Amino acid sequence: MSRTLLERLARRGMTPGLERIRALLARLDHPERAFRVVLVGGTNGKGSTARALARVLQAAGERVGLFTSPHLLDVRERIEVDGAAIAPGALDDLLARLAPHLEASSASYFEALAAAALVHFAEQNVTTAVLEVGLGGRFDAVNAADPALSIVTNIDLDHTDWLGPTLAHVAREKAGILRPGRPALTAATGAGAAFLAAAARARGARLERVAPTHVETHGYGVAFVLDGGAYAAPLMGRHQADNLALAVRAARWLGAGEAAVRAGLAAVRHPGRLEYRSAERLLLDGAHNPAGARSLARALADYFPLIPKTLVFAASGDKDAAAMAAALRPAFARVWLTRYPGPRAAAPAALQRHFPGARVDPDPRRALVRAREERPPGGLVVVAGSLYLLAALARTASEAGAQ
């Protein structure tokens, strides 16, 4: 029942505004008021920051709800309590109970899931809910909650058709999750940080920038220094230091001690974000916009220097494929272009002009198999460009490696 209902809601599309989600939450007796809320927005790094913060708070003895998006394999991944996804039957039952309210409020797919998460968290007696913004911030469904703390990871260009064409437009939308008189954290730099700071002042929010130092790769993770303390976590990529530092500072503000901070960082995982499967010599990374592509290229230079690399790439049609390709091309000896299932995917032929000499196979499973077959000894295959591509391949990657 849950999948049928969600598919029907997905066909409604997306209309900006908080009126529907506020009306829906009112019908549900405001579940978002039953616990402390942290909102996590930004262009990249939202999921890593949210997951790290949730793990630290859990280690500190909190009962933690975590709402993230998108999912890779199952929609249940979006709704967790203390690291456990909502059970299939529980989600079905919950959506069945909510269905009349969802219909009455004309809820969208994302609004329905956000409301379901908030009801689930209230019924599970969570003490803190960490809510990842889906798109933008100002009109995102989770912004109907009233956060004790807001986090904006960074400001870069993405979803410009929805958020606007400049960093100033994007910053304005992201700053929508800030609250007057409430604390807010960011790791944004450059012009994006300046625009965000101006927006925070206009809203009366207390914005603080968090900047880790002495960032180093650490095995297949990252290490950094913050406020004189040294920390490490098993997430690959120097850029993760910014996200993890935000989680550390937020956790401290929320009352977590040093032991919980270290235990939580050690436990954090984020599937599909620089996820290295060493036995298969396979790296999976969403890298769905230019900033993500640049972070992937830096990580490849840090963790896999001098190793021949093959890229299997697909992207959504609304992404800046030219900028993504410019960041990624120098890192790869071979490129396979493909597409993920769905109408948003860019045609491989359209991507080919950004990757001269790339091979094309529109079937992502076959493209991965062929990339593996042609991989030189000791080489690495990287699948990147879209989380939708990773979702299409996640179940078959191990099978392809076994062939």
Short précis:
Its EC number is 6.3.2.17. Helices cover 41% and strands 18% of the residues.
CATH architecture of the largest domain: 3-Layer(aba) Sandwich
Uncertain runs: 397-403
Strand content: 15-25%
Roughly what percent helix? 40-55%
Q: In what order do the strands lie side by side in the largest sheet?
A: 4-3-2-5-1-6-7-8
**Helix-strand category:** alpha/beta
Instruction: Label the overall shape.
Output: globular
CATH superfamily of the largest domain, please? Mur-like, catalytic domain
Give a count of the beta strands, DSSP E runs of length 2 or more.
Answer: 17
How far apart, in Å, are the first and last alpha carbons?
A: 36 Å
The name of the CATH topology of the largest domain is UDP-N-acetylmuramoyl-L-alanine:D-glutamate ligase
**Main sheet: strands, sense, barrel:** 8 strands, mixed
What does this entry look like structurally?
The chain has helices spanning 2-10, 19-27, 46-59, 88-104, 109-123, 160-163, 167-174, 190-203, 240-253, 258-267, 290-303, 321-328, 348-352, 364-373, 387-402; strands at 36-41, 64-67, 79-81, 84-85, 128-132, 149-152, 183-186, 206-209, 213-218, 221-226, 229-233, 275-277, 282-285, 309-313, 334-337, 359-360, 380-384. It has two domains: 2-267, UDP-N-acetylmuramoyl-L-alanine:D-glutamate ligase; 275-402, Mur ligase, C-terminal domain (Protein-Tyrosine Phosphatase, Chain A), CATH 3.90.190. With 403 residues, the protein is α/β, with parallel strands linked by helices. It is globular, with a radius of gyration of 21 Å. Helix 4 (88-104) crosses helix 5 (109-123). The chain contains 15 helices and 17 strands. The two termini are 36 Å apart. An eight-stranded mixed beta sheet has the order 4-3-2-5-1-6-7-8, with helices on both faces. The protein has a six-stranded mixed beta sheet with strand order 12-13-17-14-15-16.
